[in-house]
Amino acid sequence: QVQLAESGGGLVQAGGSLKLSCEASGRTFSDWRMGWFRQATGDVRDFVATIRWNSGNTEYANSVKGRFAISRDSAKNTVYLQMNSLKPEDTAVYYCAAGDPRLYYIPPNSQGRYDYWGQGTQVTVSS
Fold this sequence. Notes:
This protein is mainly β. It has strands spanning 3-7, 10-13, 18-25, 33-39, 45-52, 58-60, 68-73, 78-83, 92-99, 116-117, 121-126. It is globular.
């Protein structure tokens, strides 16, 4: 059973940084796609970033490009989201997601590409 556990959220001032972690367990993820999404209160869940575990190829939402960086550590089975130059509009619950390679035909910025989700971690950016 795949399990994803996020950590690293918190309260930070605008312009600050946070690093989120997502520890994955339950199988080998070498050919999987991992992603980060976020959901602000009263809003839909939006794509943030994604990475292919084996190749390391990444994609980002335009709103975070140049400020956020997704990475993975295979030895620790952990995916990270480094968030810099944070803005109040980055405030949201951040979710880690894992996608089976059989879903390759679904765009990586779509929630449907991922079949396992973590519980989420709150990020609050004060102005």
